[in-house]
Automatic annotation (TrEMBL):
Residues 1-42 are annotated as: Disordered. Keywords: DNA recombination. This is Tyrosine recombinase. Residues 25-42 have a biased composition (Basic and acidic residues).
Length: 154
């Protein structure tokens, strides 16, 4: 047993000051929807393609996230072993308790993946890496999607 003294309860502690907590508006009252329309998704991908260095990679990341509802952490952790370019299937390992599953890949997405694979020269490991071969970070994806949005809507 330690000699730390008696344990205080919340009732024993003096209140320092009263706080006013503002009620935050729900997201749907601040903006009408929580998703991009198909046209907005395509505009975002076109904006990414305008980037000279990583346009193909960035557009492909946006495309996969948009078409398959991937969380950023699921996208940046995507491995080539989860993509079957022969049967046109994408095996998704979900996080946060969602169910894993297999999604069909559109022909145009398969062609984009093959082009990217030829350009990148990698057929194993992580799909999306930076120029140093390290995984693209969540912040890196946020920066590329923000940059793409700025290119698309300006």
């Amino acid at each position: 047993m330690s000699d730390a003294g008696p344990i205080s309860t919340v009732d024993d502690l003096p209140a320092t000051e009263a706080r006013t907590v503002r009620n935050r508006k729900a997201n749907d009252t601040r903006r009408g929807r929580q998703h991009l329309t198909r046209d907005e998704g395509h505009r975002l991908m076109r904006g990414a393609m305008r980037h000279q260095r990583h346009g193909r990679r960035d557009a492909l990341m946006i495309r996969l996230a948009f078409e398959h509802g991937l969380r950023v952490s699921e996208l940046v952790a995507l491995r080539w072993s989860a993509i079957d370019l022969v049967t046109h299937e994408l095996r998704i390992t979900r996080i946060k308790g969602s169910l894993d599953g297999t999604h069909p890949l559109q022909g145009s997405t398969v062609r984009a993946l093959k082009r990217y694979q030829r350009q990148d020269g990698r057929s194993s490991g992580l799909v999306f890496v930076n120029e140093r071969g390290a995984p693209v970070s969540a912040d890196g994806f946020a920066a590329c999607s923000t940059d793409s949005a700025n290119r698309s809507w300006v």
